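Service request form, structural biology core

Requester: graduate student, group of Dr. S.
Request type: structure prediction, single chain
Budget code: on file
Notes: please return the result as structure tokens.

Sequence provided:
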Amino acid sequence: MFLPGVDRTADQGTTKKGMTVNLNIVEKCVSCLDVKESYDLAKRMEQEKTNPVLGYRTAGSLAERKTGDMLLKEMKEAGLTEVEKDKIRVDAWEFKKAVMRYRDQEGTVHEIQLGAYQTDFKTDGFQKFDLVYLGKGTADEYKNIDVKGKLVLIEINQREEWWINYPVYQAHLKGAAALIAVQSRGYAQIDDTALNAQDIAGPSSAPAFSMSRADFLKIRRLMEEKNEDGKKIPKISVEFDADTEVIKDQYTYNIVGKIPGTSSDSMILLSAHYDSYFEGFQDDNAAVAMIIGIARALIHGGYRPRHTIVVCALAAEEWGISDTKYDWSTGAYRQVFEARPEWQGHVIADLNFELPAHAHSTRDAVRCTYEYADFVRGFVDAVQMPKGIYPEGMTTLYPIETWSDDFTMAISGIPSMVNDFSGGPFMENYYHSQYDNQDVYEEEVYKFHHEFYLRLLLAIDSLALPPMDFGRALAGSIESLDLDLCMQTGANGVLLLEKTEEAKKAAAILSEQVRRFNSIPEEKRDWKKADAITEKLLGVFRKSQDYLVRLDWDDNVIFPQQAVQNNLYALKEAMEYLEKGEIAPALESFYSIDNNCYAFQFEREVFYHFTEYIMKQSPDRLMWGKGRIIHHENLYDLVESLKEKKPGDSLEAEKQSLREAWERQKQYYVDDIGYLIRTAEKLTDLICEVSDMFEKETE
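Core staff response, request fulfilled:
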């Protein structure tokens, strides 16, 4: 593999993107990479655990803090300077044990280990409970069933059906002592003995645990044997010993170290998280070890960066705050909005890493923000891949997703990227299970990522200005626009197109100015001016994130008008079906309208809790999700009404409800398009302000 676009016969080369790189020092740094040392550190990170049998290194736990202390020492020994612990607020979670015992028909005692979610449940030793099986745990399955004080056992598929918080809270409202979930496909499919863990996204007062499919199948067979008449609800008597506790308003630490820059006041960030489920070898021990390994190689190679390189091991990524939909990436959010808000406007790129020691697909990818896509693509497309690990090569993906800390970084105004990990079979098979261990380690992949991202880091460091192009996000917002729907609703899509084109033209001019500035020979660069322009560029980036980045109810990144746009499609479809008296397909159309799919499966209080905790919670508790969902169309009563209808019944009241919903969404759409028009105007002004900072001779 080699640095793209460089004349390798010279000691110093200039790439087609204007990067000036001393090749001798680059190759020396690459030669200093020690993948075995990174692997050993990833393994050592498994030493501290909250549960002595299963592992877990959870937010605010003693195990997490001790691991942070170990990483502090590692960073100092690697040669990083100003190594510090940044204190951050979290809700802490200590999961010490969850053990179940039961007797089979022959009287043999079986003892099994359970996983847990971020909830409260303590038994003070083994206690007896009835264990009741209730299918998927939806509201209908509780009809005429008393589960008060009992353990409820269910099967779920979190990837394709619903998240764990819905059936857990449903069980809690029915008085269950706790809910135990078994993955029915979706996650932890590698083996029937696999346990699974995810963020709970719900209140800590609704206890939840996980059971392996292998143990579940044995218990179900026993339930069936004891339920010979077939009339009683399937259940057995068990003993349960558990200790899991959420402690509100605690603290943990992010660990930060630096390689000081020689020319610029701006920074480049390397980040990964050090909390984990189970052993967490891939997720995310290997990533933390890799960023320290890259930094160590730069220091040992004698590299003196232009921009300060900051290495940050982040706590509380998997979970860190109770009873909010956006309960993960807490450590990153606290870092950039509270512990180090001064990073905003000064960090030109965050290279975030997740699960980097495994090939998740036949093609590798860097996922980045729109604004960095052209730069990253230019780098990636010129890479010669080593044989054997990625037969389809490497690509660039955008925009970023909400799965990892890079999203939080981006919305704070730090352009971010991550090695893509969310596709491929790993997520369905190994992710967040005890099978995420050294057995899934692929040394050649790990070695490649060490070298590739070291080179990418140096390519970014060689630039005076962050190589951002604001035109791609603007183009994406227009590509997602439906002009026909604009005409139907009266939204001024034509004006939006006009204003966005003006913004794109300004963005193209600015992008060329940045490129030319970056091509100035290093000895002639004005670094003071570069820092001033950088701060302005990052300010525009932050505003672009504020203006253009929204989320849907499944946490997908969308543009501001897309949620309402999709709702209008579904409402129109539903009305067409009701006009024909077709109830079932009309109800199916409701599934895609905001979060109304949950109105079909769970009680009103469940639906309202997980709606209002997005629409009505304080910004501090919504963290990186605040303001990303603007509107909500509540169709709970309409769904309930239609579920009771029979063929031939009058549907006039329901059709009127749909018409009213259409009018509300129509107005939202008009408002959203008006908002985007104003956004395009504001971004044009902001972009032009930065353009004005370039003197004519640099153009």
